[in-house]
Amino acid sequence: MHPQSPLMGQMMNQPLLVSGILEFAARHYGSSEIVSRRVEGDLHRYTMRECHQRARRLANALHALGVRMGERVATLAWNGYRHLEAYYGVSGSGAVLHTMNPRLHAEQLAYICNHAEDQFLMFDVCFLPLVEAFAPHCTTIKGYILMGSAAQMPAHTSIDNLLCYEELINAHSDDFQWPQFDENAACTLCYTSGTTGNPKGVLYSHRSTVLHAYASALPNVLNVSSRDTVMPVVPMFHVNAWGLPYSVPLSGAKMVFPGAALDGKSVYELMESEGVTFSAGVPTVWLGLLNYATEHGLKFSTFRRTVIGGSACPPAMMNTLIDQFGVEVIHGWGMTEMSPLGTTGGLLSKHLKLSREEQRKILQKQGHAIYGVDMKIVDDDGKELPWDGVSYGHLMVRGPWIVARYFKDEGGDVLQDGWFPTGDVSTIDADGFMQITDRSKDVIKSGGEWIGTIDLENIAMAHTAVLQAACIGVPHPKWDERPLLVVVRRPGQTLEREQLLAHFEGKVAKWWLPDDVVFAETLPVGGTGKIQKNRLREQYRQHLLK
Amino acid sequence: MHPQSPLMGQMMNQPLLVSGILEFAARHYGSSEIVSRRVEGDLHRYTMRECHQRARRLANALHALGVRMGERVATLAWNGYRHLEAYYGVSGSGAVLHTMNPRLHAEQLAYICNHAEDQFLMFDVCFLPLVEAFAPHCTTIKGYILMGSAAQMPAHTSIDNLLCYEELINAHSDDFQWPQFDENAACTLCYTSGTTGNPKGVLYSHRSTVLHAYASALPNVLNVSSRDTVMPVVPMFHVNAWGLPYSVPLSGAKMVFPGAALDGKSVYELMESEGVTFSAGVPTVWLGLLNYATEHGLKFSTFRRTVIGGSACPPAMMNTLIDQFGVEVIHGWGMTEMSPLGTTGGLLSKHLKLSREEQRKILQKQGHAIYGVDMKIVDDDGKELPWDGVSYGHLMVRGPWIVARYFKDEGGDVLQDGWFPTGDVSTIDADGFMQITDRSKDVIKSGGEWIGTIDLENIAMAHTAVLQAACIGVPHPKWDERPLLVVVRRPGQTLEREQLLAHFEGKVAKWWLPDDVVFAETLPVGGTGKIQKNRLREQYRQHLLK
């Protein structure tokens, strides 16, 4: 059966464009609310219909500023309604939205701006000092847009050509027809926060973004419906907030943006006042929220479900969320290179009769590939390994929202035989559940065998006196590498090396036991909230050699 | 911002093909079960992984039979695992699956087969006499495949070249790589059961089918997850069973096929024995199931959610399902020309605080456009009407899974300014909820005003002595047309004309009141289970003129 001038289907020919998502939401769920805690501290609320109006004003404004199809417009902003307008106003009009991480240093931001050849930079009022710091090093930016009103414009600034967002869009009409173009055109740009080398840009297309939005709203994934009130805690500068700015409008749900206030108290109060049912974020944010709620004896009245990603949810945190607060926990796994979602956890119908403990073990896994994503595990020679839940190897993925190459071909060919190497090491079981064992670069190679550090960290975290734990491989004269555990104690708790090592007994093979434990005040954390193990390895590289 | 050689995204380039759905299901949800009640009466069970193996054997077999890319292969079969294998084996290999409705007459089937130029016909054992009846009139079919084992082959048949499905696929290996081709290639073909003229074919593409599968599995739509056990009661020959053969495998759910046994007892017992959580079908099937369960004082132990479409769910049935049986009811609306899903009912987060009665009114509407579909209502001149819940007009739709033209251009240009006219009349309210008022051809034009027949039927159906009701416009000397109600009483119930008309008082405007009521033993029903109002209009056209 050869593809010889095939018979074509006769359905309408419509490109998948992100403008279509907001247009759909405004027409069909026009009264759905969007509530934002502004960086000023107050709450702003409006509807999808108004969001669409303002996004079209922004599109007209960008056109008037001379922004052309495919040109990049950067943002430096927390989660809020103006940032959402930029998502659609920029990409919808054919330009490319480049979200930047404000936790990066000024030099890194300047590097990224110049590499992306950004034409304009839109930023929250609170980031003015940061922008003033790196703007002199930006070579392509024609203008800076402060995302606020005229009253918020600074009296003095070192920035040339500083524009006011509200004045800019109010000077333009909302009469704008979203252009129709090739769905493979670039839509957004996000740089990876690689631990080595310069950041690399991932250039998403409209097609990949819309397909990811469809897939990520599915019941097996984020499970967003028009009955939900969704709070994206994961930042909109962090891989498009896992696609929530797209998947929530297409679902007609109410949206709640927390702005810059991500401490436990602020998040808790906003969730309660707005009736948040679903939220998504990294474990560190939930740590703050759960500590606050526990300390004050509080419950959640509407919060029912959360997706946790960025790094694995420690089992102790999962138990607290489920057993103490009645919040369903779904593990999400992905990468900037994957738009970002690749797998989500969950149960199969045959698991519904299992015990709580057996179900919990399944929920601890990173879960199933989302329809659209395929995955496999391979050994060092690229040979596919069996799906038996035991064999572990390098995790490879492919699919229509997975990167084919980096922006401007940085890093050259990244695919291996059509598959993207994730840099993770994992198992996959016969039912298709994937579990990350480690990062390829974090796995400890001891006497020719691999030791997974995540298992060891989870055991440490299950100890009541442990707040945070990181396990790293450090050089060893006989075994090449051996595990060292770096631990932050909970405030007010005492815990000694021997007590913690005793806690490991019977839980892992003897040769997996950490050789030593060191206690630290804090662990180094990167721009996306992950523990920087490379810095710990550097710090402790002499530890077992002394 | 003009589309001048736009910057392209740099994501993997993968076509959306239905073979990818089954391959995904087999790899990632390989142990999910598929249970089928066979036409022989017994239960067959296997896994997604085995389904994928057999679908690949079928693909090899079709190749060996000489079936080429784009050629049509027809089926005449109930819902079962072999039909599912045909869905993927035929379309996945690049041929076009043409599902036929066995409730059609032999002449209609022969017309459709010849129009489609089917090369092979696959059919369930029970349809042998039907196939023998129309096969002599088929001019393009090279072979007939009986979907059964060697033991089920007839000793004598008038059919030339009758092949045995099991022997055919067992003669071939499951070593088959699904071909990759243009996602706009034809995938399946389904003929509309138009009440006038010859049936017209709708030719779905792989792209439209995959996008419809994504959209229809969303929480706002069918809401299928890996925790579900799904029974498609809607036939696989009826617009691809509303896409369930695609949306269920991509969700990893367990699938239960009822075969030919759609009576209340058979459906109830299968739901209970297999733990069905979700099912979809037309109101007439639920009528039988609910009557059976009520008569025997039975409850559902796992059945929690149903989508009802084909025609509107009578409010009385919705109340019974929700209040008596605790089954959530979602209205689905669509057409063969729409793959078929266009809208589904449901609540918004702001509705959760409303009373039961207010919520029920919202659930009675056909609901929101599914993301991907856009809709509008227009007057006779094509002018768009407001979304105020009161204005009603012709409902127009567009989207990537909506027909652009019929197969072989039957009927010529069907679109109006890029929109497909559905033939339905509806309102849309400010929150985007669409409600069908009538079919354009069923609406009663009385003294220059429109009377919607569905409202009148719903009121009649709410009377406890009414089993079925149809309202039709019949010629009237003064008003052009006036409403006549044709009613089937519940067994053992007495009900007279005046009692039923009294039941309408205060529920509709006086000039909407039916001019007369006639009682019938049954109502004429077409091949897809819908009441044939054109036959009723023909039968009663003299009724008010006498």
Structural summary, described in words:
The structure is a homodimer of 546-residue chains. Helix content of chain A is 28%, strand content 23%. The longest helix of chain A has 17 residues, at 48-64. The mean pLDDT of chain A is 94. With 546 residues, the first copy, chain A, is α/β, with parallel strands linked by helices. Chain A folds into three domains: 14-213 and 233-257, Rossmann fold; 262-398 and 415-441, ANL, N-terminal domain (Rossmann fold, 3-Layer(aba) Sandwich); 444-539, ANL, C-terminal domain (GMP Synthetase, Chain A, domain 3), CATH 3.30.300. In chain A, the strands form five sheets. Chain A has a nine-stranded mixed beta sheet with strand order 2-1-11-10-12-13-14-15-16, with helices on both faces. Chain A has 16 helices and 25 strands. In chain A, helix 15 links the parallel strand 24 (480-489) and strand 25. Chains A and B meet through helix 1, strand 9, helix 7 and strand 16 of A and helix 1, strand 9, helix 7 and strand 16 of B.
Which value, in Å, is the CA radius of gyration of chain A?
24 Å
Cα-to-Cα separation, first versus last residue of chain A = 68 Å
Instruction: Describe the sheet with the most strands of chain A.
Output: 9 strands, mixed
Structural class of chain A: alpha/beta
- What's the multimeric state? homodimer
Average of the residue pLDDT scores of chain A: 94
Beta-strand content estimate of chain A = 15-25%
Name the chain pair whose interface involves the most residues: A-B, 97 and 97 residues
Helix % of chain A is 25-40%
In the predicted model, the low-confidence regions of chain A spanning at least 5 consecutive residues are: none
The total count of helices of chain A amounts to 16
